[in-house]
Amino acid sequence: MRAILLSAYLVLLAGASVARAQECDRSDDSQQMMNICAGEDYQAADARLNEAYQNLISSDDADAKALLQAAQRAWIGFRDAECAHTTAASAGGSIHAMEVSQCLTRLTNERIKQLAASANCEEGDASCASPGEDSDEVQ
């Protein structure tokens, strides 16, 4: 019984030290650490996105909620496909995880701005839903 408890304790200690070793240290410029930091940046952006989405969806009526949910699901599919496409050249390389995380972070931050702008739209203002875009310009 003591051997089992000791083994379990050692496994917990080992897991805790691995978890600590996986925290972002921006002074470490190794590729592994840059991957870890980029992953943490994405996780933080994703948390902000979830907050912005929850704030917006809680204020919508049932029809608007359904439309927002569909839009968000479609956007997630787009984001994931876009990042897979734009980072395909580094697939299999040590930099790939960082590039994917950076892409996810960039697109997530753009989506947060879109949701925030949408939350501040007044009813009937069709130009409000696309922040920073001029409807007359083609990009």
UniProtKB/TrEMBL annotation:
The keyword Chaperone does not apply. Residues 24-115 form the Lysozyme inhibitor LprI-like N-terminal domain. The keyword Signal applies. Gene3D superfamilies: 1.20.1270.180. Pfam families: LprI (PF07007). Residues 1-21 form the signal peptide. Keywords: Signal. This is Lysozyme inhibitor LprI family protein.
